[in-house]
Amino acid sequence: MKNIIALLLFSFPALASFAQKEKLAKVVAGFPVNYEEDSVGTYVLPDPLTLNNGQRVTNAKTWMEKRRPEIVKLFEEEQFGKAPQRPSDMHFDVFDKGTETFNGKAIRKQVRVYFTKDTTHKMDLLIYLPKQTKPSPLLLIINFSANNSVVDDASVRQGFIWTKEGKKIPAPKTSFGKINVDTFVTQGIGVATVYYGDIEPDFKEGFKYGIRGAYLKPAQSYPADDEWGAISAWSWGLSRAMDYFETDKDIDAKRIALHGVSRLGKTVLWTGAKDPRFKLVIASCSGEGGAALSRRNYGESINHMTDTSRYFYQFAPNRHNYASDPNKSPVDAHMLVALMAPRPLLLQTGDTDYWSDPKGEFLAAVAAEPVYNLFGKKGPGTTVMPQPGDQSLLNTLGYYMHAGGHGTVPSDWAVYMTFLKKYL
């Protein structure tokens, strides 16, 4: 496993730099970081099963019709920001309608999704489906790399990526995060990918080039305090991908799963919470702002995330209101996790990813389990943290922790496939 981690850090220079600079830093962006369990502090989590009027939720119907909408609204206003509905002038260009590839095992499709009539804002979907006559379930991966970089397929359209300096350049032919298409199609599952930068670039001024800029009102220079941050924008783009899947007769749109890592783990969590059309979510190391409890003072905090020198642009501006005291927030990660109920959700973490607080993610799953129980579904079923590599908690609300650090490691994919085949 040490060799795998070393290989990943060599192949993922951004993760290597991250691990070296922040994994065990005592101060980040001027704010202290705690890695000691006896210093996490005391906290009381908001009860996901108590309505705003104080009444108790005791059945699935009340959860779906009353409490769930209340919590979604809170996350929209106080954490991720409100996003617009599907644009009326959105349209699709299926420029690769189905080409046999990978030695006849797969059918490749490529789709350009135009968000606006003037074609300025768009994203490319790359899709591989099993060669079969019935509609296929599918895993959609939101990726840090352009489509042509993450598969060994020379026929994929050349993509473009954004640099940290705000320049758009051709994507290289090779990159980290390679997708093994054969693994999926031989199991009867399709796989698709989209580059998150197609939706919006991942830097402070990215909104000027991304989809959020297209929705600014004439008097606005930045989205309002309760309007969408970049995570909500990326999530919005994933829902537009689902809009396409619903039109494709070769795809079973009732069985679409999502996968994302780190900030994209936060993205798929919010997407699954907001858009119930997605059947299943696998969130990898989503950490603070994702599945890790913010009230637990461990690793990254709201202060670190919303500092203007760091990732404030990923959230609604209102999120910063809780930086100095997360206990004042009306929401926490367990409520975000609970919004997936009763659909399958796998939280995947790493035992040495201290910055993302793997225990905080586990405790969020434990606290969300009562909501799953309303539907007769199981969560962790224990308050005892599992050991690395333990696959015994792959329940509808599942938790799995590999031995290692931040992100998805090669051995995780076999666990993902087990989860997909069990529930998808």
UniProtKB/TrEMBL annotation:
Which terms are listed as keywords in the entry?
Hydrolase, Serine esterase, Signal
The UniProt record lists the 4-O-methyl-glucuronoyl methylesterase-like domain at 221-376
Q: Where is the signal peptide?
A: 1-16
- GO molecular function, a single term: carboxylic ester hydrolase activity
Q: What Pfam families is this protein classified in? A: GCE_fung
Domain of life per record: Bacteria
Please verify whether the record's keywords include Disulfide bond: no
Among InterPro entries, the record links this protein to:
AB_hydrolase_fold, GCE-like_dom
Q: What is this protein called?
A: Acetylxylan esterase
Origin organism is Flavisolibacter ginsenosidimutans
